Amino acid sequence: MNGDSTIREIVLPMDRVYRLAWILLPVILLLYSIPYLIVWFRPFTADLLYFFGSDARGLRFMILKPYLVWGSLAFLVSIPVHELLHGLGWMIFTGKGLRSLRFGFMKTEMAPYAHWNEPLKVNAYRAGILLPALVLGVLPAFFGIMTGRAGWLIFGIVLTWAASGDLIMFWVIRKLKTGTWVRDHPEKLGCIIVKNDPIA
Questions:
Q1: Residue 188 reports pLDDT greater than 60
Q2: Count of alpha carbons within 13 Å of 182, Cβ hemisphere only?
Q3: Phi, psi of 29 (to 5 degrees)
Q4: With 70 as the cut, is the pLDDT of residue 117 above it?
Q5: CA separation for the pair 116, 184 (Å, rounded)
Q6: How far is CA 101 from the centre of its chain?
Q7: Is 119 helix (H, G, I), strand (E, B) or coil?
């Protein structure tokens, strides 16, 4: 893929991503919470009544219980892990190593990022995009639904929502043909189409 030429850029302005993310939030909440409440409604409401049965008990829950502390730490750790999973996905689905991967930090967005330096098939690009949402969002939420552990459900909801930009990008490029080659955009959320395979 030497001498690639840009056919088309597909990028998402961050202000648009933020607006769409707020639209996605209630969708994610309903998608995960409805099956959880169908199975665990009675124990869940019992837990709520226990923790918030009085102002004092609710205050002790917020300040003294370890859930908030551990949940906050888990979220902070998940930020770099999210980017590592992008890179891991691209490495797995392209069969290439770390030399094709770069990590950095966007000062304007105050967020780390992973960038793949080489062209790759669009399906490999899609897989790398989705991996953090699946590993950090869908799987913990599914575990919470299956076991009734609300903490895992909440973690899955938050981390799925944190991957809103990835989910939106996946949707935007859904119609690209399998044989399309793309480059991860070096500066923006999106990709650059460098080759279309007309027979794909």
A1: yes
A2: 28
A3: -60, -50
A4: yes
A5: 6
A6: 19
A7: coil
Mapped onto helix, strand or coil, the DSSP state of residue 5 is: coil
| Lookup result for tokens 């226990």 | 50
For the cut 80, the answer to whether the pLDDT of residue 195 exceeds it is no
**Of 82, 88, 103, 106, the residue nearest 162 (C-alpha):** 82
DSSP line for 178-195 = TT-EEEE-SSSSEEEEEE
Report whether pLDDT(103) > 90.
no
Measure the CA–CA gap between 137 and 63, rounded to whole angstroms: 26
pTM of the predicted model as reported, rounded to 2 decimal places? 0.82
Instruction: Give the 3-state secondary structure of residue 115.
Output: strand
**Residue that the structure tokens 């799925």 belong to:** 160
C-alpha distances in Å from residue 102, one per residue of 81, 118, 130, 186, 187: 14, 11, 18, 10, 12
Q: What tokens appear for 146 in the block?
A: 């299956």
Quick one: which of 50, 186, 46 has its CA closest to 114?
A: 186
User: How many residues appear in the chain?
Assistant: 200
